[in-house]
């Protein structure tokens, strides 16, 4: 993978971003690593301005080197800082990407500096886990889901969600929509079924282990049985 040819995961993030942010994109890519995503957009003339944010020195230097090598220092500003703290009001950021982190960490990053997120900003988020916790926070904090999908990348399944800051509209989501994703349920991909079949197999194995030791009446076993039934209902 490089700035010219992204992984399937990051390619889908870019596709969503370009599709849903109709204005000239002013992006903050948080946890940018090598800055491949903003560099790719800039090389394809799909970007007005970007911040490549990194908190760790190694990836920060890698991002600076990639941007300089590609001749994109006038378009992409590589900044070292924690989460959304790299953004200022004068940047006029209207798009944010956060990829490859746990859902709880993404939630915390957004929550710590949510005041900097302007109305109508489009966020494309790719949590590696804890998607339910992230969806719940987004739903409770003025964000509306525009789309979601699950893609396969190197034999792993990744959830990608697109939301927009909209304080004037409250989106009502069911328990299943918070767990699996409203648009994933409406238009499931093959990777979606693969992901949840793996989750189901893992839960069933753990459930059997608990039952053998503590019986079916154990609170953990009962809770796990509910989760298993919920997944089976969606898969079937």
UniProtKB/TrEMBL annotation:
Task: State the Pfam families in the record.
Answer: TrmK
GO molecular function ontology, one term from the record:
tRNA (adenine(22)-N1)-methyltransferase activity
What does the entry give for GO biological process?
A: methylation
Keyword annotations: Methyltransferase, Transferase
Q: What is this protein called?
A: tRNA (Adenine(22)-N(1))-methyltransferase TrmK
Q: Which organism is it from?
A: Globicatella sulfidifaciens
